[in-house]
Design brief:
heterodimer, A: alpha/beta, Rossmann fold, 2 domains, 8 strands, B: Rossmann fold
């Protein structure tokens, strides 16, 4: 079957197979993406990030249900870590979303990071595009549980929500660089636990110190995702932010930047493949290494020659 | 890029715990597979749909309660015929009496692993039989 055609006609297995092709970098993946690309750009992409155990999956489940009630179709890409030692992964985000499985308006795909360190996998953005082309109105991208510096989600999402929970450190944590800089909105989950109000105060202080002087002040919403409390208010903020970035051109700016980043990514990964094929797999690298070891030449000269050859 | 073997580990039926399924999930992870785990009390419809959305190569189910003669074949039918995923390897395990195994294999369960099976047997079976 022509995967791209079938996908565009609404075949869910084709969507699934397309994402597999993208993820495994099958030869046909580029052709599929070319065909899908004209149909992308319609979905609203919400990034959901935060530390492990913050409740990102449970929250995603709640938000998806709320959007479904509005009649919107939903795609979810949930990323979990791949073991750097074995290459294996346990992708467990679906456990919190079992209630959505049989809703035909929802498509959930789990992805392993497969060596990527920014909180997503290298192929997450393309998986999102496949769902976008399929016609999903809203796409949630749930990152791995992040520490402080995994901020790739801002490159993939229109709006980024940072989910935090009480009890994870004092206020100096809140002024450190990293994920707290990327929140368009903040969600304090498990707000019935001790320390939720303190966390809100500390975050507010951090946001008040922001020297950026943007006219968007990231709102902070307390929720109890497992009970659905605060979800309606949270959605209100999400939509307010989306309207804000649509209205002032920020959305267009973010998407332009995304295209730019993506193009450079594709370019450098193609160059990487060229080098792997022509230099590494062909065995030329070993030859170079041997000559350099014998001091017959040096790495700089060799690289210069390779560059000349590549750019011919 | 190498092809990654994706395995859905699923618990159909009303079992109260999933200790065994978690042990197997962990062993498969350590064998380098991507394991999608969906938790307890899944219907055959949910398992088949998760297999479709995740485009898995293997569906591995575990049942302790005795509902396997009904639920295993149901999942096979949905995955093969409703989803149209003909190549997916479907295996089962848990508390399965010896006498039930031939009928399950007849119904399309490629192999049945009973208590005491070393997890490496499951890994080896998948590696030998998966169509990826």
């Amino acid at each position: 079957m022509d995967i791209a055609e079938e996908l565009l006609q609404g075949n869910r297995l084709a969507l699934s197979r397309a994402i597999t092709a993208i993820e495994n970098e099958y030869d046909e993946a580029t052709e599929i993406m070319k065909k899908l690309y004209p149909h992308t750009g319609h979905a609203f992409v919400l990034g959901i990030t935060g530390p492990p155990g913050a409740g990102k999956s449970t929250l995603t489940d709640r938000l998806a249900r709320a959007y479904r009630e509005q009649g919107k179709t939903v795609g979810i890409v949930a990323v979990d870590p791949t073991s750097p030692f074995t290459g294996g992964a346990i992708l467990g985000d679906r456990i919190r979303m079992n209630g959505l499985t049989l809703d035909e308006g929802v498509f959930i795909r789990s992805m392993g990071t497969r060596g990527s360190l920014g909180g997503l996998s290298h192929k997450t953005a393309d998986a999102v595009k496949a769902m976008d082309a399929f016609g999903k109105d809203v796409i949630f991208v749930e990152t791995v549980g992040v520490g402080q510096s995994e901020v790739d989600i801002v490159k993939a999402a229109d709006t980024t929500m940072v989910v935090l929970i009480p009890g994870m450190g004092d206020d100096i944590q809140a002024i450190k660089a990293g994920i707290l800089e990327i929140g368009d909105l903040f969600c304090i989950n498990k707000a019935d636990h001790d320390g939720a109000d303190k966390l809100v105060r500390e975050l507010n202080m951090m946001l008040d110190l922001d020297s950026n002087m943007s006219d968007w002040r990231p709102p902070i919403q307390k929720v109890i995702a497992s009970q659905g409390e605060g979800i309606e208010e949270l959605i209100g903020y999400i939509e307010k932010h989306y309207a804000y970035i649509q209205g002032n051109g920020l959305l267009a700016e973010r998407r332009t930047k995304r295209i730019r980043d993506e193009m450079l990514d594709i370019l450098s990964s193609n160059i990487g493949r060229y080098i792997k094929g022509k230099i590494v797999d062909s065995g030329r690298l070993d030859g170079y290494v041997e000559s350099i070891r014998k001091h017959e030449t040096d790495p700089y000269t060799v690289v210069g020659d390779i560059m000349k050859e590549m750019l011919k | 890029m190498e092809k990654k073997i994706r395995v859905l580990v699923a618990k159909p039926g009303l079992d109260g715990h999933d200790r065994g399924a978690k042990v197997v999930a962990r062993a498969l992870r350590d064998a380098g597979f991507e394991v999608i785990y969906t938790g307890l009390r899944q219907t055959p419809e949910q398992i088949a749909e998760a297999a479709l959305q995740e485009d898995v190569n293997v569906v591995a189910m575990s049942i302790l309660s005795g509902a396997h003669p009904h639920l295993f074949p149901k999942v096979v039918d949905l995955v093969r015929n409703k989803n149209g995923m003909k190549d997916v390897l479907i295996i089962g395990g848990g508390v399965i009496p010896e006498g039930d195994i031939p009928a399950l294999k007849e119904a399309g369960i490629a192999e049945v692993f009973t208590p005491g099976t070393p997890t490496s047997d499951v890994v080896d079976f998948i590696k030998a039989n998966v169509k990826a």
